[in-house]
User: Which sequence fits this backbone?
């Protein structure tokens, strides 16, 4: 007897699902079934948790029971972003044929794989931020990196050492990073485990394959025209990114028209610690206000994204910086032009992402209308710019493309009120297609059309009671009462005889019937064809539209700088060839906006050069504003070199090529490093990379270890910077007053302090930087302001006096000799009643006191307390 087959029987649908799922094992598969996207098994369990949808079972109780969760297909834009933001890769599996046209199971296939780094869905993307996909390759001598934002077509590459690649990761914050299987551990070691990585096969990271992939894509024979031909590791990464696009079914990519080199030597070097310490665009404190929050006055999404790039990559070329300053100055002096430009930019949608959707054929009719309206809004800007007296603005006007044919074509083909979805109909304008207009007329004015036929035939035949009607058996017919049947023309075909009448059909009615019944379907088909043709035609305009988007982004950033300068009384910095940095009345751009209304920000002057005042040693109490002065100096330099005006009365400066900061204790304990170790790592990185145009800001170096250790390290670092041939400009804030002695020994070190005003029991922070060292730190006053118990404050003051007295002996004997006072006594409390009780008790002669007298004395003390 044959053995029974125990394998559970797969349904055709589940067989099809399993075959597709095997190809995408690491993705959440959204499987289209009728009007729903379904998920099964593990995918269903994950999706139900993330989306908060009901988890049910398919084939409940049977051997093929599996978890099931789904949602209506038209809700994809609501649910897809949630899955992607939760870090999932989502494979969208659609029906590839019309279910009505097949008798077997509908063909299905994955039409798109959406991952955190590859998405064109507006709900997944943030309008003012790029969504970069990155790839990193570990070469023999250097690392390569490439970035692509598939939603805008921006493609960038670079190569360098680990530190440089780490800095770029901080700047560009990619949503997903591709790495080779063999580099998984190297990546973790170099860049930690906070990034979202995806592992791809090693063979993809191959220079020949990458070169061929890139030249095929761009239709070139070499990569020299892009200026990246010498970046072998960068080319490998760029090839890996294009490979990944094919893998994720993103095969329509004409909008990726260029690849740019991130030229390290053109931009100010800031290591990752500096980017983090200055809180340029994100902060480890969730409530902190970043510099970007303050300076971003851009109106368009393109401008917002470009501003981030300018902030991440400030310029080193004085001519280019001055060009930006010239435009900002021109706009500030010509407010009517500025406000006109801003009002036009407000009408411009996200041109970069719209044209990318055109290339990928994922655009809706309404978005194409937005594209036309945006291009229309550029025309007044072009005219204004061409008539400008400022050369750089005129050049922008000259370069803006009017895209006249494109605007005209869209205006002719599409309705101004085109729908969000093509299926909703009425996207194509009247007059584009005679067939479409006729079908629409049939569809919308069927009643009038039949009335016209009825009236015409009635007049022609003389049958006054003639009537046109419809039934499901033979469609439209003409009913004639028996009294008039002899007037019926010969070409009418009799279909039915009734008691009092007869029913006929005509060729015209049959034709009309097939037209009206198939009209809706045909309308959809014709609209889809015409719309696809239009989208294909617009694809020829990808480059001019991208050029316009880039120019509008620049103009948006520069008008934003002008707006910012006007609102906050910023001034134009003067750039020269010197090595000096001279700031008069400098302010911190972020802190000044956080102050209570009416509270003025205390501005400060800073002067640094390589001859007389190379290193400023800033002492002063905690909370007095030392760190603010350090940070504002860096931010003023940074803003000046990105093309903005600055928060200061006057600034004249030579271009800075590197900004280094070591500000505050940034613990890295989670990675097993102490505060002090992190501090030393960061400081070592500064000392090993310093240049003659560097600006270095060091805050409280050495505080992570014992006092004498800390003083020694801080002293040695300051000495090293002073003696280094680069003579880098340095601000050195410290609470070690011993370092003030360095001014006497080293000629280019100058002491400054943040002044305070001592009152009888308090201290007033004046936040003003003045020449000279500071004598002591007022830490106890800060403790008092923080609400420390009075007992602790009094004890600390006593110890401080003793330590200051004994400091000259070079030993901390004060603390040792104070052993007898280490126990906190109740009589140390600052209370006159307790003092008098203390005197009463100390005045007693215990040896002569009788028990009764002792009781009486105790009763007396008790009465003192009760009073």
Assistant:
């Amino acid at each position: 007897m044959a053995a029974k087959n125990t394998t559970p029987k797969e349904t055709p649908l589940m067989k099809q699902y399993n075959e597709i799922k095997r190809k995408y094992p690491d993705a959440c598969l959204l499987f289209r079934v009728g009007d729903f996207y379904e998920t099964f098994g593990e995918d269903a369990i994950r999706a139900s948790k993330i989306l908060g949808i009901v988890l049910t079972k398919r084939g409940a109780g049977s051997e093929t029971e599996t978890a099931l969760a789904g949602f209506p297909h038209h809700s994809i834009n609501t649910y897809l972003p949630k899955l992607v933001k939760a870090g999932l890769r989502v494979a969208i599996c659609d029906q590839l044929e019309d279910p009505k046209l097949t008798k077997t199971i509908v063909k299905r296939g994955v039409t798109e794989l959406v991952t955190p780094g590859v998405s064109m869905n507006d709900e997944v993307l943030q309008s003012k931020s790029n969504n970069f996909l990155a790839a990193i390759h570990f070469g023999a001598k250097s690392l390569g990196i490439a970035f692509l934002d598939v939603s805008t077509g921006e493609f960038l590459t670079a190569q360098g050492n680990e530190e440089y690649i780490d800095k770029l990761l901080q700047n560009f914050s990619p949503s997903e990073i591709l790495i080779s299987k063999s580099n998984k551990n190297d990546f973790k070691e170099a860049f930690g485990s906070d990034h979202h990585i995806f592992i791809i096969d090693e063979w993809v990271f191959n220079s020949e394959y990458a070169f061929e992939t890139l030249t095929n894509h761009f239709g070139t024979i070499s990569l020299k025209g892009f200026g990246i031909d010498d970046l072998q590791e960068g080319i490998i990464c760029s090839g890996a990114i294009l490979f990944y696009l094919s893998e994720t079914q993103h095969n329509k990519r004409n909008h990726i028209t260029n690849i740019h080199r991130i030229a390290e030597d053109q931009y100010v070097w800031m290591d990752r610690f500096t980017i983090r310490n200055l809180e340029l665009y994100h902060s480890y404190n969730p409530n902190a206000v970043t510099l970007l929050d303050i300076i971003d006055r851009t109106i368009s999404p393109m401008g917002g994204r470009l501003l981030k790039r300018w902030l991440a990559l400030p310029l080193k070329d004085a001519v280019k910086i001055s060009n930006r300053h010239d435009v900002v100055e021109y706009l500030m002096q010509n407010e009517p032009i500025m406000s006109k430009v801003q009002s036009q930019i407000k009408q411009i949608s996200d041109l970069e992402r719209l044209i990318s959707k055109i290339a990928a054929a994922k655009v809706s009719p309404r978005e194409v209308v937005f594209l036309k309206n945006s291009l229309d809004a550029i025309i007044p800007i072009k005219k204004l710019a061409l008539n400008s007296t400022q050369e750089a603005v005129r050049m922008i006007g000259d370069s803006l493309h009017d895209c006249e044919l494109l605007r005209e074509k869209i205006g002719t083909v599409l309705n101004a009120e085109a729908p969000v979805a093509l299926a909703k109909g009425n996207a194509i304008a009247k007059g584009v297609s005679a067939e479409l207009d006729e079908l629409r007329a049939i569809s919308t004015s069927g009643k009038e059309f039949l009335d016209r036929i009825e009236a015409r035939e009635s007049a022609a035949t003389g049958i006054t009671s003639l009537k046109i009607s419809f039934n499901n058996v033979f469609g439209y017919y003409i009913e004639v009462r028996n009294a008039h049947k002899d007037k019926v023309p010969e070409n009418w075909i009799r279909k039915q005889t009734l008691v009092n009448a007869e029913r006929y059909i005509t060729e015209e009615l049959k034709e009309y019937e097939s037209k009206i019944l198939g009209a809706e379907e045909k309308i959809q088909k014709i609209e889809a064809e015409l719309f696809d043709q239009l989208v294909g035609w617009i694809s020829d305009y990808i480059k001019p539209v991208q050029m316009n988007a880039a120019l509008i982004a620049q103009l948006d950033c520069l008008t934003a700088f002008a707006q910012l300068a006007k609102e906050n009384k910023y001034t134009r910095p003067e750039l020269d060839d010197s090595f000096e940095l001279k700031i008069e009345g400098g302010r911190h751009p972020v802190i000044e906006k956080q102050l209570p209304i009416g509270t003025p920000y205390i501005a400060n002057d800073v002067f640094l050069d390589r001859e007389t005042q190379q290193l400023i040693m800033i002492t002063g109490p905690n909370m007095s504003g030392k760190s603010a002065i350090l940070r504002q100096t860096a931010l003023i330099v940074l803003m000046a070199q990105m093309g903005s005006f600055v928060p200061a009365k006057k600034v004249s400066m030579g271009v800075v090529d590197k900004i280094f900061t070591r500000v505050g204790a940034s613990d890295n304990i989670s990675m097993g490093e102490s505060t002090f170790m992190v501090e030393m790592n960061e400081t070592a990185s500064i000392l090993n990379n310093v240049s003659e145009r560097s600006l270095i800001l060091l805050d409280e170096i050495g505080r992570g270890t014992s006092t004498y250790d800390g003083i020694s390290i801080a002293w040695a670092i300051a000495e090293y910077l002073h003696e280094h041939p680069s003579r880098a400009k340095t601000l050195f804030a410290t609470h070690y007053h011993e370092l003030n002695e360095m001014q006497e020994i080293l000629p280019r070190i100058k002491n400054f302090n943040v002044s305070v005003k001592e009152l009888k029991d308090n201290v007033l922070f004046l936040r003003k930087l003045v020449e000279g060292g500071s004598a002591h730190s007022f830490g106890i006053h800060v403790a008092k302001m923080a609400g420390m118990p009075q007992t602790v404050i009094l004890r600390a003051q006593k110890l401080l006096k003793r330590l200051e007295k004994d400091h000259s002996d070079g030993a901390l004997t004060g603390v040792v000799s104070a052993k007898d006072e280490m126990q906190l006594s109740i009589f140390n409390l600052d209370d006159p009643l307790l003092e008098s009780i203390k005197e009463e008790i100390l005045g007693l002669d215990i040896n002569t006191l009788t028990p009764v007298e002792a009781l009486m004395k105790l009763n007396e003390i008790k009465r003192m307390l009760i009073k």
Q: What stands out?
A: Confidence is low (pLDDT under 50) at residues 1-6, 665-672, 810-824. The radius of gyration is 39 Å. The longest strand covers residues 749-758.
